[in-house]
Write a structure and sequence with these properties.
By secondary structure, this protein is α/β, with parallel strands linked by helices. The chain folds into two domains: 73 residues, Orthogonal Bundle (434 Repressor (Amino-terminal Domain)), CATH 1.10.260.40; 146 residues, Endonuclease Chain A (Endonuclease, Chain A, 2-Layer Sandwich). It is 50% helix and 12% strand. A six-stranded mixed sheet has the order 3-2-1-4-5-6, with helices on both faces. Helix 10 runs antiparallel to helix 12. The chain is elongated and about 65 Å long. It starts with 12 loop residues before the first helix and ends with a helix.
């Protein structure tokens, strides 16, 4: 015990995570080599995380959650890690992307802009730069947002890939972002996405009118265990909902959205029509 380092959880987010890891370990009566052995890490690695000498990695946090019985809970170390890495993002969003990266099925609806999972680098950068120009975020935070989009998109090409259903409000393809060159490349990206065997792309035309069930963006996830959740955003924060009493009606509304949206063939035709209007 003479070598035990006192921890200050208030020193940094990393220190807070390390202190909590030590607390969880000691509550179980484990030494660092006990926890490390169960996780597949050395006791030195556990010590470095507990004392904030090294930042934890996402695989480390997931391994800790599996051993400590915290996987998928509000208290998971994965959720805390995501909050640290993406703290500049909208409240609630870091927790959501942890589930998104492992979902078996992703259903999303977007209004106004192309969703992050389908954005080109140039399109994403233009949006991030606009936030910087408005003084909403810093340049570093803008770079973080663009990098995060690339990380999220990488999860779409894992093996096996998730099924991805996308419905875009017509305004997403008609609202030009970044000028002709950027938008032309972005529309090409949508057409490429529609050609993927695990993808479905539909446009919700303006003519849907009152039949459109959602006025805000929404994402529904089906996890590997077939459990459901949805994520929605307001201007101030994001909300992740797992209660079936709310999720099932939302899934039903999504199916109604798909029913009234254009078919994929007609949607691609509309995108091509808009695309031809760009030099």
């Amino acid at each position: 015990m003479t070598n035990r380092k006192e921890l200050n959880p208030e020193a940094s987010p990393q220190a807070a995570l390390g202190a909590r890891l030590r607390r969880e370990r000691e509550q179980r009566g484990w030494k660092q080599h006990d926890l490390g052995g169960r996780m597949g890490y050395s006791p030195t690695q556990v010590s470095h995380v507990e004392t904030a000498l090294k930042n934890p990695t996402l695989p480390f946090c997931r391994a800790a959650d599996a051993v400590l019985g915290l996987a998928g809970t509000e208290e998971s170390f994965e959720r805390e890690w995501l909050g640290m890495k993406y703290g500049a993002l909208l409240e609630g969003f870091p927790g959501f992307i942890g589930y998104e990266s492992r979902a078996a099925e992703i259903r999303l609806y977007e209004v106004g802009v192309i969703p992050g999972l389908l954005q080109t680098h140039e399109y994403a950068a233009v949006l991030a730069d606009a936030y910087v120009a408005r003084g909403a975020i810093t340049v570093d935070q803008a770079n973080e947002r663009v990098s995060l989009i690339a990380e999220r998109q990488a999860a779409l090409v894992r093996t096996p890939p998730p099924l991805v259903f996308v419905v875009l409000d017509e305004g997403c393809i008609r609202r030009f972002v970044g000028g002709v060159a950027v938008m032309s490349k972005q529309l090409d990206r949508l057409i490429e996405f529609a050609e993927q065997p695990n993808a479905m792309l539909q446009i919700a035309p303006f003519s849907m009118g009152e039949r459109r069930p959602f006025n805000l963006p929404i994402t529904l996830l089906t996890l590997l265990d077939r459990s459901l959740m949805f994520y929605a955003e307001s201007a101030a924060r994001g909300h992740l909902e797992r209660d079936g009493r709310s999720v099932v009606p939302t899934l039903t509304a999504y199916h109604q959205l798909q029913k009234h949206a254009l078919s994929q063939a007609d949607s691609v035709a509309m995108i091509n029509q808009v695309r031809k209007g760009t030099p």
